[in-house]
Amino acid sequence: MAGDRLRRILAELAGVGGSARLCEVSTSVIGVSGAGIMIMSGDVPHGSLCSTNEVSALIEDLQYTLGEGPCVDAYRADQVVLEPDLADPVVPRWLAFTPPAVAAGARAVFGFPLRLGVARLGAINLYRDRPGPLDNDQHADALVMADVAARWVLDVQAGAPEGALASSLADGADFHYVVHNAAGMVSVQLGVSVTEALIRLRAHAFSSGRPLGDVARDVVDRTLRLG
């Protein structure tokens, strides 16, 4: 059965399309409203590899900006995260992420970790515009899709020059380079880790009601220094 699922997914992915095709196929094969893939390393999200529509793009951006959500939890816990009713969960979570995600039209969200052996790469985020759990077939398809996506990312990156990001990963992706640059600067200025610097940037953006990218640009342009 798993072999049949794998063959069906690989047939859908055949041909051109790059990383964006991973999200498109995730949506069509699993039968959800949209999908996104977040790439992470350590405790730090690098950004979104792909997303299928405005809602999935917003979900990816919210998770990156706020540091919480289904992909973040799936990656950190290395397990599937399921929230079948985001607007009325049994146990409330993601207090900053949930209101804007629901307002955008996400009523159910599901995170499936990307991993291959001991390598953890990020997570696939699936959303649906109505509440309700994934059925057994959808859940099984999502597990296979996550495995395929992880292998694709590793295979593509293996062909890149050492220290460089493969062009197939960078094309169409949103890796928030200005935020990473700003986190590096704050790390040096304050003598803290890059992870702590990113937390400081997020906190400043949240408290000031500004987009994280705008705060990061101010840091890089040296018009803002975090104390």
Share of β-strand residues? 15-25%
Which strand order spans the largest sheet, edge to edge or round the barrel?
2-1-5-4-3
Largest sheet: 5 strands, antiparallel
Write down the domain tally.
2
Radius of gyration based on Cα positions: 18 Å
Per DSSP, the total helix count is 10
- The overall pLDDT average reads 86
CATH superfamily of the largest domain: GAF domain
Give the uncertain stretches in residue-range form. Answer: none
What is the straight-line distance between the termini?
56 Å
SSE run: HHEEHHEHEEHHHHH
Task: Describe the protein's architecture and organization.
- The chain has 227 residues and is of the alpha+beta class.
- The protein folds into 2 domains: 2-170, 2-Layer Sandwich (Beta-Lactamase); 177-220.
- The chain contains 10 helices and 5 strands; from the N terminus they run ααββααβαββααααα.
- The protein has helices at residues 2-13, 18-30, 54-66, 70-77, 98-104, 136-158, 167-170, 177-190, 194-208, 212-220; strands spanning 34-41, 44-51, 81-83, 108-116, 119-128.
- A 5-stranded antiparallel sheet has the order 2-1-5-4-3, sandwiched between helices.
- The chain is globular.
- 40% of the residues are buried.
List the helices and strands and how they pair.
Elements: H1 2-13, H2 18-30, E1 34-41, E2 44-51, H3 54-66, H4 70-77, E3 81-83, H5 98-104, E4 108-116, E5 119-128, H6 136-158, H7 167-170, H8 177-190, H9 194-208, H10 212-220
Helix pairs in contact: 1-6, 2-6, 8-9, 8-10, 9-10
Explain briefly what this protein structure is:
The protein is α+β, with helices and mostly antiparallel strands. It has 10 helices and 5 strands, in the order ααββααβαββααααα.
